[in-house]
Sequence to fold (411 residues):
Amino acid sequence: MIRGLNSPWSDDKELPALFGSFNLVSPSAIGAINRGRIMQALYDNGPTSRVDLARLAGVNRTTVTGIVQPLIEEGLLIEGKAGRSGAQGGKPARPVYFDPAAPMLCAVLLLPGTIQTCLVSLTGEVAAHCHSTFNPRENLQAFTATLCATLAETLAQAKRPPFGIGIAAGGMIDSDKGEIVAVNLAPVLTGLPIVALLRERFCMPVVIDHHPRALLVGDRWFGPGRGLQNFAVIYTGHVLGGAFFIDGRVYRGLAGSGGELGHTVVQLDGRLCNCGRRGCWETIATLSWLREQAGAVGFDAPNTFDSARLVQEVAAGSQVAEELLDRYARNIAVGIANLQQTMSLNFYILHGDAAAGGELLAQRIKLHIEQFIMKRPNQEVVILANDYERGDMALRGAAGLIVSDLLQLAI
Ligand SMILES: [Zn+2]
Fold:
């Protein structure tokens, strides 16, 4: 190649820091990836025999045994009772699955004013749940003391040292640096290097991610997202956020900044948003909108009104509630429709207040999405409300962050 002044390969041109950087996979990392893939297959398929794992992976049984056997010896997996006979009438296949006595995952859910901690088994059972509160505007020392004490209470109940601590947090998170960038509703957390802090204090791996993304990971490992290659989570409450699972991977965006769906503009020059701009999706599809409208159409106690109450009122035959439900569903649908048009993920799991509206609200949202989007043949949009034990879903998600880290799957 001739190197000229205008060539991008010119010697005197400095490359931007990230230009063309890439990672190679070392032999030890390949081992970790293979272990991770076996464990992912068990998450997706439930207890599975070595023969079936080999068939699913397209390799021979010896290869699978070479990966599975050390996992059994480490106490991560266990062999179950023999099931049906082998296909050729050979030895009955013994399924392998996660050992209930395996180390657990430690989860932290950090929202403005509250800290929840627990242990989660590899199969998603929650134990040793602890809860504490903090003043979102108090000093940092008081907050870290409360956080560490709550975590220590949970960790003291672990029979074996957990694999690590996964944190799901509201606000703006830098998941690469392990820092809380800013939380409008809890200024005490702003700039907190929480991952480094807990790593030093508890001497185990620690990871953090944005609350909706933890919900997504929880759905992927322990919920309705099992086995899916493409789906999104939409969380609504006092704020609106989302997370995407695209082609088998969690999509994070630069430093984990993806998923700020609440501040995508759905109405030019629309209502004023908390972020200071106008017309954000969050201004028409969260609890503050619903409560304002509930008050305007005459419901009592509008300040505590939510989607659960809305569907109850509809079920009781209220025409006013029916009309409000339809408008609310349409407001939630517009943002999902834009997402569907952009990414065609097709499968959307609702969490938070929208999920509390259950099947009725989910189906109405779907109806409006279908009116907003261009129809394509053989493409159905699924809207699923996942209101299952609300808080626990986020804690399972926080634990799921450690599963992802553990399995080195980059998800
Ligand atoms: Zn906004």
Remarks:
- The two ends are 39 Å apart (CA to CA).
- The chain has a mean pLDDT of 88.
- The pocket of zinc ion is lined by residues 263, 273, 275, 277, 280, 282 (CB under 6 Å).
- The longest helix spans residues 319-343.
